Amino acid sequence: MSSAQISHLLPTYARVDLAFERGEGAWLVATNGDRYLDFTSGVAVNALGHAHPHLVEAITKQAHKVWHVSNLYRIPESERIAERLCAASFADVVFFSNSGAEAMECAIKMARKYQSASGRPERYRMVTFEGAFHGRTLATLAAGGQKKYLDGFGPVVQGFDQVAFGDLEAAKRAVGPETAAILIEPIMGEGGVRVVPSEFLRALRRLCDEHRLLLVFDEVQTGVGRTGEFFAYQRCGVTPDIMALAKALGGGFPLGACLATAEAAKGMTTGTHGSTFGGNPLAMAAAGAVLDVVLADGFLERVRRVSLVLKQKLAAIADRYPTVVAELRGEGLLVGLRAAVPSAELVDELRAEKMITAAAGDNVVRLLPPLIVSEEEIAEAVRRLERACARIAKAQEKPQKRGAAR
To answer: Would you kindly state where each structural domain of the chain is located, as residue ranges?
Structure first.
């Protein structure tokens, strides 16, 4: 947008002056015709890339039928998708919403309500972890506990006790007579693509079982194939009681879900929660198409294979440019490059290479290609990354040479 134009959008985003008009697979076409390799996927949303024919067909077909009827009536489409999600997971029941933050709100309410329905209404607090990001509502911001997101919005919602990432003893100390649950992301996405060790998650499971707490996983970013398993909890062998999903579940269509065991959800009876648009037929058509593709034989195996290729190639880049890339993180196609320079600099250089990526906490650049990305596209992405790193490394040499000349 030129300086002469005025936007009537609330200025809550630091938007790049770049817009796209169409896409196909892992590629986006800007309004000026330039082609960009999309390694952001709408921040892990476009799991099937852009304009996937099966997703387009499913949404178009449903659009000619019915979009929205409200939850005053049965929605057979949502019943079918809930059945498929439960069959593919630990869950017995599903609540559909429109976003990850809403899915997390449901998870928080469900954990509290479970304790109340179990005769322990004093238990409402949740142990959470520093650096986490659970959404932008007042409750989910409080769960994340990050000051930069909380400042200026008045009293912080009570009920969340943050402890240091990976500190099991601190988590144990935080559990008290008012604790209802422990909430964690198996991999912190916004927090810097920090993978939580499986043994730590297993210890949290034991802690919850010991104290009659619920274990809640935030899989908004990791769920639906992103890690190479359908859900991240399946790669670590730890089963939660409640799990929040969104992002990839709708393949780009706004959709969130809260999955739970029947026991964990026992307090969520008629009237305890709701969502006007949740589980509408159009969103369910999108989810059904995503599940068709991601749960097809061989799909997740292929994701694991190409993610290994990506990691191997990125490790070579990190070895060649240690003054640009300090560390490689992540699982599957949720990959983080902790930069040795300001992460924004690397993001900008990659965009100059017509490749889009996303920044994260801890000075990390996230690589989030669509799950349908090809090995050829991965090779092309790595070539563009290498050129970007080479330019940054070359610029680093100039001040040293001037100093040597003196």
So the answer is: 53-294, 310-365
